[in-house]
């Protein structure tokens, strides 16, 4: 590969990164606004509830923070708010009395499922500018990129 070709490839890689970031921010900002307007909630609260929805038996606070890649303090604050609103219950971990397990309450489950359905509709609308084939191609390419990143960073 010539030096000019390598420089061009580097520029394409940088432009790709910036385009991915731009698309992510546009979608995220729209969803943040929609969650605030439609449900008077935040994206971090939605993300915590989504994790708890995936694990109906509950998750330890540390597990939630690892899955969402945020600090335990952030998760504790969100769980405290959700518990005050009756959307989450917190119990002591049977295997470690120093740790807490959080799970959605029936009210939390109902609230999250309503938000998740609306979230799905927003994402479908936001990505509606692509054909089914383009969705599949983009998904395949992003999967390949993610797998390559896992391999390089392992």
Question: Which helices and strands appear, and what pairs or packs with what?
Answer:
Blueprint (H helix, E strand, L loop, with lengths): L2 H37 L3 H12 L4 E2 H8 L3 H13 L3 E6 L2 E9 L1 H21 L5 H22 L1
Antiparallel strand pairs: 1-3, 2-3
Task: Explain this structure.
- With 154 residues, the chain is mainly alpha-helical.
- It has a single domain, classed as Arc Repressor Mutant, subunit A, CATH 1.10.10.
- 73% of the residues lie in helices and 11% in strands.
- The chain is built from 6 helices and 3 strands.
- The chain has helices spanning 3-39, 43-54, 61-68, 72-84, 106-126, 132-153; strands at 59-60, 88-93, 96-104.
- A 3-stranded antiparallel sheet has the order 1-3-2.
- Strand 2 (88-93) and strand 3 (96-104) form a beta hairpin.
- Helix 1 (3-39) packs across helix 5 (106-126).
- The longest helix has 37 residues, at 3-39.
- The mean pLDDT is 94.
């Amino acid at each position: 590969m010539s030096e000019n070709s390598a420089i061009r490839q580097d520029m394409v890689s940088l432009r790709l990164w910036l385009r991915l970031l731009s698309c992510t921010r546009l979608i995220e900002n729209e969803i943040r606004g929609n969650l605030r307007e439609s449900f008077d909630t935040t994206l971090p609260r939605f993300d915590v509830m989504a994790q708890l929805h995936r694990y109906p038996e509950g998750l330890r606070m540390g597990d939630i923070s690892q899955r969402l890649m945020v600090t335990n303090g952030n998760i504790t604050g969100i769980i405290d708010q959700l518990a005050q609103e009756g959307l989450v219950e917190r119990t002591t971990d049977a295997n470690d009395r120093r740790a807490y397990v959080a799970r959605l309450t029936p009210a939390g489950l109902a609230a999250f499922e309503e938000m998740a359905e609306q979230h799905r509709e927003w994402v479908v609308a936001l990505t509606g500018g692509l054909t089914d084939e383009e969705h599949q191609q983009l998904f395949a390419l992003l999967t390949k990129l993610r797998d390559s990143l896992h391999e390089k960073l392992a």
